[in-house]
Amino acid sequence: MRQWAAVLALALSCAATAQSVFDFDDWMQRIDEQSQDLQRHIEKRDGAAATLSARDLEQLYGLMEQFFEKRGDAADAVRWSREGREFAQRLRGGLPPLRVVSDGTVF
Question: I want to staple 81 with a disulfide (CB 3.0 to 4.6 A). Which of 7, 53, 64, 72 is the partner?
Answer without folding.
Answer: 64
